[in-house]
Task: structure prediction
Amino acid sequence: MNTRERSLYELLYRIFTWLMQYAFGPYWHTTSPRAHALAHMLALTAYANYITQVPLAFEASGKNLPARRLLDAFSFLVSDCVVNVSPVHRPIARIDVNLCEIDKHTDMLAELPLLPSLAVADRGTAATLRRDMVTDAGERWQHILTNGAEWSKVVTSVARIAGGIWEQVADWLMHPDRIPISVPVDDGEASNGK
Result:
């Protein structure tokens, strides 16, 4: 794996780890293989969205708190995502919760590492990860788009460049019915040289 491939693998792994730590805290290593698979899928989707819009929706029941936390964390990473919260399956009305500019400026202050829920250990904040994805995707977009601009080709290209488990993750994104209940857990040891 060359340095550029390794850096993309490591960025995707940082995103995956941040998602898991946000959802499960220090206990994330004890979670199910399915939780790991879904967090990998969210990480790859978050990155790919900085190249092209990935037309996938991720849903979780309000009663499944860890799944909701994974989706909450994911929503902090994808600036163009739409967040829907509905206490019923078929609401009779939709209320726009977008806030004004002053609230957006206040949010920039809140995203500093002073807010523990958005800053996880040494992984940084959601804002840091977004900046890293924007920078990395900006440097790689031409290479990633050599196979085409269709979302599935972008996801496949990103996964191929990153290598490792990410190629399997790309397959799961395109074929969600293939996500096994038990999957190999990529704990990042290979990328850390352990």
